[in-house]
Structures are given as structure tokens and as C-alpha cells.
Amino acid sequence: MNSKMGYVSVLFALMVADYLVAPHFNLVMSGIVAGVFIIFSAIMMMAVKRGLAARSGLANEIFS
Fold this sequence. Notes:
It contains two helices and no strands. With 64 residues, it is an all-alpha fold. It has one domain (2-63). The chain starts with a helix and ends with a helix. The protein has helices spanning 2-21, 27-63. The longest helix is centred in the C-terminal third of the chain and has 37 residues, at 27-63.
């Protein structure tokens, strides 16, 4: 749950920052921001997947 909330917080921050400073960004700066967000998103998705897998394994141990 914590990883999901962290992802949502960063997504919201990116949308607000994009709205406020997008007119001042050039193509390179936009690419850097998008690249950092994509890397962060991939890391957060792996963390969520790892957490779900751990809980699933725990549930299998409890109920088997």
C-alpha cells in the first residue's frame, strides 16, 4: 500500500509541475523529466509487484 501511495504522490507532483513549468521547458528538459519519471515508475511497479508476491506467498503458507 505504501508503494502505491508513493507512486500516486509522485504522479500528482509530476502533473502539477508539468502544468506549472511546461511552457518554460525545452525538448531536452522535457525528455529528462519524462525519463526520470519512467525510471521511477518502473521501480515503483517492481516494488508493488514484489509486495503482492510476498503477500501471496504468505497466504499460500497460511492456507495450505
